Amino acid sequence: MFEILLLLVTGLVAGLLNAVAGGGTFLTFPALVWVGVPPVSANATATLAALPGYLSSAWAFRGDMRAEGSLGLRAIVVVSALGSVLGALLLIVTPGETFTGIVPWLLLVATILFAAGPRLLRLARGAGLGQAGPAVSAAAILAVSVYGGYFNGGLGIMLLATFGLLGFVNLHGMNGLKSALSAVLSVVSTAAFVTAGLIAWEQAVVMSAACALGGFIGARQSRRIVRTDLLRTFVTAVGLVMTVLFFAL
């Protein structure tokens, strides 16, 4: 019962965080490992569990999403799907012991990127990177999508920074597109993970339901949240703690 409650609470909070600031994987991935799911399977299951939250969040932001920059929405989706396939295949062929050794470093990098997210966006805009052409934009989306297909942690802020590169300026639209692309990445990656038998279904069902509820609530309430910096600080602290714990294991 305690494990079910843990999965429900972490799933709900992760859905809220993914909709508002990102970083939900910092909670769901360690929770799955804690209840006994092997790291590679936990990463795959966390990706699946986040999917309903991404979909509900994208639905709540559906009126804000607009095409901006040098790539159309269809091209962005296609490139994202391709990258997620490559990332998922890379995870599938990664041995469990190797992935266990990589996880602390992935968490560390994701935490640093998440903490530096607002500054990265300001630098991207200040440097005039919004003028990037279609080829550079597609390459950036592809790189982030490969990362997202391999490891979901920190994906949200990486997508937001990339949207800054593409020339997006509407924050609500960026949040909506972030959720929509994260959903695309999760669908494609999950299909590969299901085929490879990596999903822990009992845990995934419980966590997915909670993520869906959290994602919808988070998206609906995001416009009322003034101090998103406090959320970012909380998520960064969680990421640092989890990084230290995984290095210590």
UniProtKB/TrEMBL annotation:
Localization: Cell membrane
Pfam families: TauE
Organism expressing this protein natively: Halovulum marinum
Annotated family: Belongs to the 4-toluene sulfonate uptake permease (TSUP) (TC 2.A.102) family.
Transmembrane segments: 31-51, 71-93, 99-117, 180-198, 231-248
GO cellular component: plasma membrane
Keywords: Cell membrane, Membrane, Transmembrane, Transmembrane helix, Transport
Chain coiled-coil ranges: none
Xref: InterPro entries: TM_pro_TauE-like (IPR002781), TSUP (IPR052017)
Topology within the bilayer: Multi-pass membrane protein
Protein name: Probable membrane transporter protein
